[in-house]
Amino acid sequence: MVYDLKGKAPAIPQGSLVLVTGVNGYIGSHIADQFLEAGYRVRGSTRDVDKATWVREFFSKKYGEGKFETVVVADMVKEGAFDEAVK
Q1: What angle do CA 10, 15, 20 make, to 5 degrees?
Q2: Hey, which of 8, 28, 56, 81 would disulfide with 22, CB 3.0 to 4.6 Å?
Q3: Strand partners for 42
Q4: Three-state DSSP class for residue 14
Q5: 36 alpha-carbon distance from chain centroid
Q6: What is the pTM of this model?
Q7: pLDDT by residue (tens digit) across 62-81?
């Protein structure tokens, strides 16, 4: 089990699936990398699946298949835009 700096178990169990928005951007890709490094699975949202190709390939190579996936949220201000992403 992974513990935080205060010696407590994390609020989100290791191995859980977490959603990172804007995963093909600078900040989003670094956050996803930190989650993957800590043993979480990551679903990353992107507005354009083609722009996320590099990040899918990078994380598959670095962490193996099945640890990272992408979901397209083309218009994030549309009502229900993230409904599929959070399932």
Answers
A1: 85
A2: 28
A3: 18, 68
A4: coil
A5: 8
A6: 0.83
A7: 999 999 999 988 888 888 87
* Residue partners of 32: CB distance under 8 A and separation at least 6: 20, 23, 42, 44, 55, 59, 68
Q: Where are the alpha helices (DSSP H) in 3-64?
A: 26-37, 53-63
Count CB atoms within 10 A of the CB of residue 30: 12
What span, in angstroms and rounded, lies between the C-alpha atoms of 51 and 46? Answer: 8
Q: What is the DSSP letter of 86?
A: T
Looking at this protein, which amino acid is placed at residue 52?
A: A
Cα 14 off chain centre by: 14
